[in-house]
Amino acid sequence: MTARSILHVDMDAFYASVEQRDRPELAGRPVIVGHAGPRGVVAAASYAVRRFGVHSAMPIGTALRLCPHAIIVPPRIARYREVSAMLLAIFRELTPLVEPLSLDEAFLDVSASLRLLGDARSIGERIRRRIHAQTGLTASVGIAPNKLVAKIASDINKPDGLCEISAVQLPAALDALPIQRLWGIGPKTLPAVHAAGIHCFADLRVASEPLLRQLFGRHAATMRRRAAGIDDREVSAEHDEQSISAERTFEADLRDPGELQTQLSMLVERVATRLRGTASSAALLGIKVRLANFTTHSRQRSFTPPVRDTAALWASASELLDTWFGEHPRAAVRLLGVSVSGLRSSAQADLFDHGPVKAARVDAAVDEVRRRFGEGLLMRASHIRRAPG
To answer: What is the rounded end-to-end Cα distance, in angstroms, of the chain?
Structure first.
């Protein structure tokens, strides 16, 4: 099989870089994008503030203790989406095989473009030049025979860099990398992996089967393949959205039902806003709960007719979580997620839409505030619940 040429394009500190570009007085300053407050988290951190140990998903309070002179800028999701659309247009000029991962990163399969545009490195450099010329921003590009290694490569020469790892270079390029660069090794897993004597990709690749099963359970074989740079996934071009989801991994495991319900409320709000933004209604809602030991549970609820209002989605999600928590009292929750699927277009939805007019007006008002000022600014008081006692 002919080796593929896969690019992973990753914007450098995207949200913070957009803010610094739009507000030149912030250039070079320690900028945190996020909402100030007791529940605020870092959505993005400029490279100047990262030097103090600040990183994405960190509580704002912790970030400010590390860098008291940091400048907090509220996120402007609509603005970031505008810039993201410009990036996708650049990518699609070079290949139709573009798989967006988020607003600021995407996989590109340029295998069929090599004869016309030159080798993969030339295409990667062309992309970086175009991004800078059209947006004023910088991007890092990883080039490899597969998606896994391309994503690893894009992080090696960050920021504003390019790294290519060919098929023949795979063992030499990967073996010495610190194990925390491997997808699936997070802050919770890393201490146990290090304690087992695994510090680099090569250590994991040659580790014994019993040790890997002890560390990763049924995912042991998958982790060994990743450490060897093996990945057969294809770049999947973007299609119409079939589902919408949001999830959050907590810095510290949560056990309090009231706090989990509050976090669930924010996730439902994000999903509901995006659902209405696509002029769709959902026939199925699901929640995902991942425990500290990485065991994952899911619960679902169907709707007839499909729904799109936040209140209906929240009521079902809240009940599903209550039921789950009753079955797993005091469970330590690492990740919480919400998803909707079975999407129907607005034309189909309107046939069944008999929801309260007041609720629709509230949703429209919240959507507009979130569109203009970013997610996380509002939380409905009716969704904040306390644990009993």
So the answer is: 63
